[in-house]
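Reply to dn_fold:

You asked what the input looked like. This is it:
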Amino acid sequence: MKPRPFFKVPLNLSHAATVAGRIVYHLDRVSGSRPPGDSDPRADLGARCTDLRRLLEPYVGAELLPPAEEAQRVANDAVAVARALVDGIERHGVGDDRLGQAVRNLFECLGYGAEGATQSLRAGENPDSLLRPI
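and this is what came back:
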């Protein structure tokens, strides 16, 4: 399989924290519109979002990265949570284009752009979106 194009973005924990907030917004929007009787994904996905925000909150508005070892550890931990979040989005069928774009942006900000190009599709990003790298 040919690798998917991706944006190579320098590690930016501050912007990753901002994008995590966008993911919460989009999850609230899409999971709140589920038909009655469907399992409510908010508890499962909310727990993952809480974990993600807890990891990234210390870096909100930070102008400088922490020391390299700390920054990479935080990025690795956040990516592990983001993977679990994408698993839940896919399992509950609540993905959509905007949510998928935010997921891709999160992976990019954490230095995992190549993986984000694939994970975003699992989270509902339109593969033909003009916002995807070509």
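The chain has one domain: 13-62+71-122.
Hope that clears it up.
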